[in-house]
Design brief:
Elements (H helix, E strand, L loop, with lengths): L1 H33 L12 H17 L4 E7 L3 H7 L5 E6 L3 E2 L4 E2 L8 E10 L9 H6 L1 E11 L10 H6 L4 E6 L13 E6 L2 E7 L7 H14 L9 E3 L7 E2 L5 E6 L3 E7 L1
Parallel strand pairs: 1-10, 3-7, 4-13
Antiparallel strand pairs: 1-2, 5-6, 5-10, 5-11, 6-7, 8-9, 8-12, 12-13
Helix pairs in contact: 1-2
This protein binds 2-oxoadipic acid (OOG) and magnesium ion.
Amino acid sequence: MTVSSSASAVSGASATSSVSLASLAERLDDAARNARAVPQLSEPLTLAEAYDVQRRSIERRLARGERRTGLKMGFTSKAKMVQMGLDELIWGRLTDGMLVDDGAAIDFARYVHPRVEPEVAFLLKRPLAGRVTMPEALGAVEAVCAALEIIDSRYENFKFSLTDVVADNSSASGYVLGPWGDPHADVANLGMVLEIDGRAVQIGSSAAILDHPLRSLVAAARLAAEAGETLEAGWIVMAGGATAAEALAPGSRVRLSVERLGDTGFTVR
Ligand code: OOG
Ligand code: MG
């Protein structure tokens, strides 16, 4: 009797906490779907629980028919850390529902308060799991491209703690990929110019991304493994913003040029 009641108390407690993680995932998923901001989480979460909320929120998208396409890294540059006031590497999950075709138009109304940032993306031809070296990471890369990330925090005023942003899929909202290029192109220090409406609004270098964007891929393999994930062949890995992000507005015309890798862009309507 004592044993069974304490056993049910224990399972009751874990069920309650998993229900509440599920309800946080639902809250954040709904906020993204309805483009309506929510307050920062008042529930205290560990980092592992925040990633669990993220996983659950993405599972809701997968249950609606979206397909997992990769992983995004965040806070891989000083500029991004300074802009958002956080200094730990974070990551989020990408799905095909977030892909914006190169040159396409997005609807401002489908976002809460979208921003754009210049990145580099890798396409993997082989899985990467756990601790890998830079040469191993490079060996798994099929192609590299200039990429734009559309981030959109689901929290009011784009303000969050580390666990808030992780639970919110690290603000992942959209990604735009330029033409794929040679995986052996030296991407260590490429000039990057982000233009909005024909005006250069951010100028930077791929070296701002952990001194070399490939380091971000190495970190992605390690961090994903901590959550039991392998980076899969065919996945896209977004290396993280090289500069601070810029706010988007209806009518914005966005263009990114990356030295040697080429251009990509989109518009907002
Ligand atoms: C969090 C996502 C950070 C990056 O590239 O550093 C990120 C945010 O800034 O809202 O995507
Ligand atoms: Mg980013």
